[in-house]
Amino acid sequence: MFSISSTVLPRWCTTSRHIVRMAAAHTTIAGLSFEAVAIKPPSHPTYDLKGIIKLALAEDAGGRAGDVTCMATIPFDMEVEAHFLAKEDGIIAGIALAEMVFLEVDPSLKVEWSRKDGDYVQKGLQFGKVYGRAHSIVVAERIALNFMQRMSGIATLTKAMADAAHPAYILETRKTAPGLRLVDKWAVLIGGGRNHRLGLFDMVLIKDNHISIAGGIRNALRSVDEYLEQENLQMEVEVETRTHEEVKEVLQYASQTKTSLTRIMLDNMVAPLPNGDVDVSMLKEAVELINGKFETEASGNVTLETVHKIGQTGVTYISSGALTHSVKALDISLKIDTELALEVGRRTKRA
């Protein structure tokens, strides 16, 4: 279990609160030590994870109104125990974040887990519980579940893709939900994937529009090398290529010039076939042209059905925007009357 340092209840429980602004780059967030977290979130210089939680809770509370249903139906000091219930099979993710939500609403709540982030859960499994004031638990419930369900959906698909892609590594992209960049990318790590760049600041990625504006791939690479040297910056550099001719042009530039280039993206070199299969011959030839001089990344036409074949071409990485932009949430519930919940779940085939 984690602990939170502040003992002052937030605004959605009382009229007093204590705000501590923390960023994910620090070793603790909202009083939680990430040394104790199974899989730590990516480090980001400005992302305020506690702020995202506060925003989600404030969105639900609607200012001073708060949870009018709770106030009308639940005695303020009533205490209950509620259980987390998996309603389908998958990889659980967001346990640490869900606990942060409960403790932000009410630091007196007690949260316990029988599983950790990254573990497999089966439909019908009770994998955690929260005990304390019923009012606080119900207020926190939906926000905690929203984070967990989205993260678990991402982690579940990532795990399947990562296993199928081996020996290549699976990456997500920047196609994340606005405001949830770090949350989505954390879920990818929990699912066994690796993170691509967190934003525009931590890696140079020369894409097709940059190349067009710069007047060609060599000009774009030269401009990046000059800029990094001028600014005394060291970071990974990736360039997008779409044809074998562009790959050869990049390799020729690198053979003639000292460059910071570290990775070549091979974009849309996987061709779909009428029978549902894919032709990876163009991708494989590009990997052979590069011959280990740089890391390689396959992009385009990546699905759970095609990723294994792509992974056998020798590419270092495979990136998939679908990991985060087409999320199917994992069905999870929080129930106080778990016997009734299981009975209803069996009737509807959801538990």
From TrEMBL:
CDD domains: QPRTase (cd01572). It catalyses: nicotinate beta-D-ribonucleotide + CO2 + diphosphate = quinolinate + 5-phospho-alpha-D-ribose 1-diphosphate + 2 H(+). The keyword Glycosyltransferase applies. Residues 67-152 form the Quinolinate phosphoribosyl transferase N-terminal domain. Belongs to the NadC/ModD family. One of its GO terms (molecular function) is nicotinate-nucleotide diphosphorylase (carboxylating) activity. Pathway: Cofactor biosynthesis; NAD(+) biosynthesis; nicotinate D-ribonucleotide from quinolinate: step 1/1. This is nicotinate-nucleotide diphosphorylase (carboxylating). It comes from Herrania umbratica. GO terms for biological process: NAD+ biosynthetic process; quinolinate catabolic process. Pfam families: QRPTase_C, QRPTase_N. PANTHER family: NICOTINATE-NUCLEOTIDE PYROPHOSPHORYLASE [CARBOXYLATING]. It comes from the Eukaryota. The keyword Transferase applies. GO terms for cellular component: cytoplasm. Keywords: Glycosyltransferase, Pyridine nucleotide biosynthesis, Transferase. Its EC number is 2.4.2.19. Residues 154-335 form the Quinolinate phosphoribosyl transferase C-terminal domain. Gene3D superfamilies: Aldolase class I, Quinolinate phosphoribosyl transferase, N-terminal domain.
